[in-house]
């Protein structure tokens, strides 16, 4: 097993290194694409922020940088672009290693790590230098430390770091509570919550920053730019006076839905807390204001975790083929339709929006289909019976 872990990490490293070395321009091309880069996570804004910080200019005056300062401080230690790209590759290797450890503990196999290592979406996201790598590094570390190490403090600090990097993800702390079990559950939950808040405040007070520029941009979708998400088209089309109302509705919809999912699957006798967490991650990726395909790549690599302890929830899925084809369709056509609209001018925004709807439908179908599987397993009392036919009312 040790050998396969090493070979998995090496393969992850090799794929990314080869792409970066063979195609030096690929990174900046991907960084210009709407699929892998957004105004709040792009490599350009990271570089810009580091430049401004090094020259002690007003970091958030220009309205280009929306990254929290500690991440930029960290970037200052690396020498230039080569250093930054190396960091991104290393971060992905660490994620792969964490995934191997996580799945070995649960399952004795390392499919997640293989998928993460070679999945084109995660590979291209790494090459594009999207800062979501750091967000997901902290998320996966949080999962690793609570599932493998049973270390609540480390896990909650990692959740705090994740929320510090991306406030849209802070609601993921709710499904994390499901992992806490045993005696003194309530005390541990409170401690977990307090650690998140204290770590968050500490991170903020080490290096304060204007909250509205860094977090406000993400939460209020201040920079309306096309992306793979569901938000941009609405706010381009909408009358000015309705925009603030609908922004709050969209935010409530995105973050609020995590609460019912968490409550529905909180019972540990019936559902693995990991499953609930992954469903919530999928939901957030589907509805957040600035999603990228790299995040979907991470979500897809977590799917083998629905297949642990010899019980396969994925086998309950009713239309896996249809979902897979929708994904392919959406992901392959989106750059083409964007090119038709922006570069050639022979299409319009509806082309690109239609294809991002197809992609959102694929992601939504995948989430609901897996949710159906989780509920079916509960109905079958933990012993899967794939031949039993049920109708959903
Ligand atoms: C599975 O469900 C079918 C149909 O309800 C039933 O006939 C069969 O006995 C079940 N199998 C097991 C192993 O429970």
Give a brief description:
The protein is mainly alpha-helical. It has helices at 2-22, 26-32, 43-54, 69-76, 80-106, 111-118, 120-128, 132-147, 152-165, 173-177, 185-206, 211-219, 232-237, 243-256, 258-264, 273-287, 293-302, 320-344, 349-379; strands spanning 307-308, 311-312.
Structure description:
The protein has 393 residues and is mainly alpha-helical. The protein has a domain at 310-393. It has helices at residues 2-22, 26-32, 43-54, 69-76, 80-106, 111-118, 120-128, 132-147, 152-165, 173-177, 185-206, 211-219, 232-237, 243-256, 258-264, 273-287, 293-302, 320-344, 349-379; strands spanning 307-308, 311-312. A two-stranded antiparallel sheet has the order 1-2. The protein is globular, with a radius of gyration of 21 Å. The termini are far apart. It binds 2-acetamido-2-deoxy-beta-D-glucopyranose. Residues 385, 387-388 line the site of 2-acetamido-2-deoxy-beta-D-glucopyranose.
